[in-house]
Amino acid sequence: MTDPRDAELRRPTERMPRVNEPVVEEVVERDADYRRVRTVRTVCAVIDIVCWTFAIVLLVHIFLVITGANAGNGFFQFVAGWADGITLGLDGLFTPENASAATLLNEGLAALLWLVIGALLTNLISRVALPSEYRRAWYRRTVRP
Q1: pLDDT of amino acid 136
Q2: What are phi and psi of 11, to 5 degrees?
Q3: What is the dihedral of CA 121, 127, 128, 133, to 10 degrees?
Q4: Segment 57-100, tens digit of pLDDT
Q5: What is the mean pLDDT of residues 8-37?
Q6: How far apart are CA 69 and CA 61, in angstroms?
Q7: CA distance linking residue 65 with residue 70, whole number of Å
Q8: Burial of 9 (0-12, 13-18, 19+ CB in 10 A)
Q9: Is 59 helix (H, G, I), strand (E, B) or coil?
Q10: pLDDT at 103 over 80
């Protein structure tokens, strides 16, 4: 007869070990490139987060300027301070009559450049630093017999 405790602890495909039975442990071996791959992917993730954060800050500033938000507000000043520091020197590139249009063009271009810079950096780092079997394959040639 079966023990009623087995029904509670058991999955359909395996029986749970009893208290005195030895437990079989699964050992997962990592390959030699594990640390390198993890480090490269972490660096690329940090670069992506920083570049996307800068682009979002610029887009929020564009939104606040276009909608005519109160420039004396603390949040507006905080976002404007960040936006002034990350515009990549594109502050006076476009000089239309309307200040909102100037902000849209200059900071919109800076936000786009931050996204392009992030994509280029992560692509370059992963192509150079990752082992060949972990790289993204853009082209594979298959020879058929």
Answers
A1: 75
A2: -90, 160
A3: 150
A4: 999 999 999 999 999 999 999 999 999 999 998 988 999 999 99
A5: 70
A6: 10
A7: 9
A8: exposed
A9: helix
A10: yes
